[in-house]
Amino acid sequence: MTSTNSIPFDTDQIRSQIDHAMGAFLDTLNLPSKLDEPVRYSLLAPGKRIRPLLAWASAQAAGGDGSESLPVAVAVELIHAFSLVHDDLPALDDDDLRRGRPTLHKHAGEAAAILAGDAMLALAFEAVSKVRPHPTTDTHAKLITQLCQGTRAMIAGQVYDTLGGFDDSLSDQQKIELIHTNKTGALIHAACVMGATAASADQPTLDLVSGFACDLGLKFQIIDDLLDVQGDPKLVGKALRKDDDANKLTYPAVLGIERSKEIIGTLHRDALSKLDQIGPASSGLRLLLDLMTNRSH
């Protein structure tokens, strides 16, 4: 396991590097203008870049300097942007606002939104190919598998959330946990394990990063559920209470607000215990855990 000293983690500086890497990657592609513009509108929209930052911090936790994860950061943000574009479409959540701006189908039309989402899904795997391979391990194969697993699980969660199809034996709490651990948690998990893999993590560190990511992913979505009920729409950047209006399963709806907060606390403590075992090199992940806990949007 990693035992280096605590590593500086400047979120603004790292976010700037991530944004530059995403723009530089798009510059290499020579996409048709009718595709390039909507892809850039979605991918480069102002955002927290949580998943890319997690990839960077996970690379640091594995003993790297973080920069090894930049291609991973680009890949996971491409998948995230693709999922948001398609999630916002009329056939799914039918949202008009995303990150404080018109959603892509409102900005460029449904056809452009569908095609841009398709393109970003494919481009994510091209971005992974830019990772510097470790000379003694099949780094690219591992990363592609991790990205495939995260993307597939994310889409499965969207299916459960939108179309249902649950096993009849599941309770409402089990159903909502299945949705959240897949729809939201899976890509957070992929970002973390891919970042650690890009930095050649040893297996014990990779296992701890994986466990941390599972705790964080579920906690992150439960907080989202609470924000949908209690948040300020001006800060959240999208319409609120749509889950209630659509009778969707959420933690507050199933378990109540106070019990949801208790579960968040338990997940937070479990996540911290994994970081304690990794040691000081997990300082970036610790900072992101705090930022993602104490957020208003």
What does this structure look like?
With 297 residues, the protein is an all-alpha fold. 70% of the residues lie in helices and 1% in strands. The chain is built from 15 helices and two strands. It has helices spanning 11-27, 33-43, 50-61, 70-87, 104-108, 110-128, 139-163, 172-183, 185-198, 203-230, 233-236, 242-245, 251-255, 257-278, 283-293, and strands at 97-98, 101-102. The longest helix has 28 residues, at 203-230. The radius of gyration is 18 Å and the shape is globular.
Short description:
With 297 residues, this protein is mainly α. It has helices spanning 11-27, 33-43, 50-61, 70-87, 104-108, 110-128, 139-163, 172-183, 185-198, 203-230, 233-236, 242-245, 251-255, 257-278, 283-293; strands spanning 97-98, 101-102. It has a two-stranded antiparallel ribbon.
Q: Low-confidence parts, pLDDT < 50 over ≥5 residues?
A: none
CATH superfamily: Farnesyl Diphosphate Synthase
Q: What is the second-level CATH architecture?
A: Orthogonal Bundle
> Describe the biggest sheet?
2 strands, antiparallel
- What is the CATH C-level name? Mainly Alpha
* Mean pLDDT rating: 91
- From the spread of the alpha carbons, the general shape counts as globular
Radius of gyration: 18 Å
Tally of structural domains? 1
Share of residues in helices: 55-70%
Instruction: Tally the beta strands.
Output: 2
Topology as H/E string? HHHHEEHHHHHHHHHHH
Specify the structural class: mainly alpha
H/I helix tally: 15
| Amino- and carboxy-terminal Cα gap | 34 Å
CATH T-level topology? Farnesyl Diphosphate Synthase
Q: Strand content of the residues, in percent?
A: under 5%
Strand order, sheet with most strands:
1-2
